[in-house]
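USER:
I wish I could look at a protein chain and see how it folds. I am handing you a single protein, as its sequence and its fold in token form. As I understand it, each token names a local backbone shape. I hope you can help me see how the letters and the tokens relate. The protein I mean follows directly.
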Amino acid sequence: MAKSKKKGNLSKGEELLEKPEVLAEQISKTEEFIENNKKLVFSIGGVLAVIVAVYFLYNYWSTNQNIAAQNEMFQAVYYFEADSLDKALNGDGNNYGFLEIIDEYPMTDAANLAHYYAGACFLKKGEYISAVDYLEKFSSSDLLIQPRAYALIGDAYMEMGTIDEAVNYYTKAADYHPNEYTTPAYLIKAAVAYELLEDYESAIDCYKTIVEKFVKSSEYQTARKHQARLEGKINAG
């Protein structure tokens, strides 16, 4: 049978619960503090009220901004898919392009996505530095579009002849949530870049990863062929 606690051993919380007079005294002290510090209490309360109001107003504003930006972006995406790259970037006089969406609706999801599209537009136009600049500002947790952005940056660096940077981004694309649908294609790109750097062992590793881990992918046979070719090249050397 458990022993009851001695009154002298009561914790502060237990003392408040078991002794009404102690609780009343504590309430009285609290009321006295509030009475003596009205300005401080009301100031703190006012600040908290302002913070809560700003939070909800910002969320309301942000939601409306994002909706407006998404509506504006519809036409820009249409121009992008039609390869009307200048209109996609700069608009048509009536509708915003991706660059205007980025400027007019900063900090929205639509502006973030507009960075991706703008980077892709500049890549198609052969303006590789601008492509890298916009694509690097894009960020997403999407399993397909984020690695695609990395790969496009790799493509831009390949076009500029900066092969080592291309390898870095192709590898980032391949390592981003590996799957049989996109990873093998990025590994092929990385392998080609490694071969240009004459790093044949790393290229073989890329092909070997496809052969061993992505048997059902459409790149499987290509990977097998090039793995064998490079292994033969190394053995012959």
